[in-house]
Amino acid sequence: MSAYAQAGDLVQLQGAGYKSHILRLKAGEVLQTHRGVIRHDDVIGQAWGARLQSHTGSPFFLFQPGLADLIRETKRTTQILYPKDIGYILLVMGVGPGKRVLEAGTGSGGLTTAFAYMVGESGRVVSYERKPDVQALARANLSRLGFENRVDFKLGDATDGFSERDVDALFLDLPNPYDYLGQAKASLKGGGYLGMLVPTVNQVSRCLQALRNHQFAFVEVCEILLRYFKTDWERLRPTDRMVAHTGYLIFGRSVFETNDDLFDEGTDDQG
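The chain above was modelled as a monomer; its predicted structure follows.
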């Protein structure tokens, strides 16, 4: 990777205390912002981390966008998963270069973006969505980031199952994921990871019962809370902003047989 921004690079222009902009550099193009106009030609060739100015003198810093930045910039018509939840999903489900990941419920493509980012050029993401207009937006979001060649978008309902077999990980981003664990089981490889997110404890209970019925083991249920702190080193204290309940995450491993010892009551012992 060059130390300087080049034409064709995906870049982030971050203002101080105001909106950032993620764009792909193209010679001759301009970016219109509320803080003034920035010419792409003035960005091309600049070092990463450089301080730039719009035509009105407003400062912007030049960065390579991280995954959280890409997710926050996702254009959406539906609610997307929060980065705090997505980060844990990627960690627990072992999503990385070369993995095959299946997703049911593409939505606007926030989680799809994270999966595509992590599997790299050697991996593959398959994402099912039953609404053509929603899928079209997700396609556009992934194309804008240059990830469309890592994803197979499929129109279909989870009720009908999935044609893929032996995938490494499968995430059900659906209102009633407990109804589709048989279909998920058929597509996962032995030992593969299953993930779900639901908003209520009643749904968690239904998911747990279905997981037991469909031979999933080492089940985990958790809730991710995120608290921000003020960055004043002399008066370190929490801000008023906290991302609290956004849903319950549920994970399990696909096995050929299970018992009560493998379907435990949580993960109290993390050692």
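The mean pLDDT is 93.
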